[in-house]
Design goal:
The chain is mainly α. Helices cover 63% and strands 3% of the residues. The chain is built from seven helices and two strands.
C-alpha cells in the first residue's frame, strides 16, 4: 500500500477510535467503493515510470485524462501504452533472450499497479515468460486496475 493511504488509515484509526464507529465504516466503504488506493497506486506507478519534471502537473493531467476517457468512452483505456509495457519488459530482459522469469513477471506487474493477474501464465513451466504473454497479461491487468475511476 502507498504511504499516503497508510497515513489515511492512521488518520482514521486516531480520529475514529473503534471499528464500531459508523463514520469510520462509512469512510472505509467510500474508499473501497471508489477504489481510491488503486487509483493512487496506478498514478504512482505512472509517475515512477515517466518521472516527469513537475509531478503535480503530471498528476493533474493524469486525473484529467482519466475523466476525459471516461466521459468520451464510458470507460477509459489503460494509462500504459504498448510501448511502455514493452519498455518494462526490455528493462527486465537485459540479455535480449526474448523472455523474462516468472519472478520478474510478477514483480513487473506489481510495479505497474496490477494486483490481479494470471499467476501461471504461458511459459511459467519453463520460467520463460515471452513478451507476447507479458503484454497480454499486463494489458488485461491494467484494464482491470484502471477500472477504478468513477467520475463525480
Amino acid at each position: 500500500a502507498l504511504p499516503i493511504y497508510n497515513e489515511y488509515k492512521s488518520y482514521l484509526r486516531i480520529n475514529m477510535a473503534t471499528t464500531e464507529n459508523p463514520k469510520r465504516q462509512m469512510a472505509e466503504a467510500y474508499v473501497q467503493k471508489h477504489r481510491i488506493p488503486e487509483l493512487f497506486e496506478n498514478m504512482t506507478a505512472a509517475l515512477i515510470h515517466t518521472q516527469p519534471e513537475n509531478a503535480k502537473k503530471f498528476m493533474i493531467k493524469y486525473l484529467e485524462t482519466l475523466r476525459k476517457f471516461r466521459d468520451e468512452k464510458g470507460d477509459y483505456e489503460s494509462m500504459f501504452v504498448e510501448a511502455n509495457i514493452t519498455s518494462v519488459f526490455g528493462i527486465l530482459d537485459v540479455t535480449n533472450k526474448g523472455f523474462i522469469s516468472l519472478d520478474q513477471y510478477r514483480s513487473a506487474l506489481k510495479t505497474l499497479g496490477v494486483k490481479k493477474y494470471n499467476a501461471r501464465p504461458e511459459g511459467c513451466e519453463n520460467d520463460q515468460i515471452s513478451l507476447q504473454t507479458f503484454m497480454t497479461e499486463a494489458k488485461t491487468g491494467l484494464e482491470h486496475a484502471s477500472s477504478n475511476f468513477n467520475p463525480m
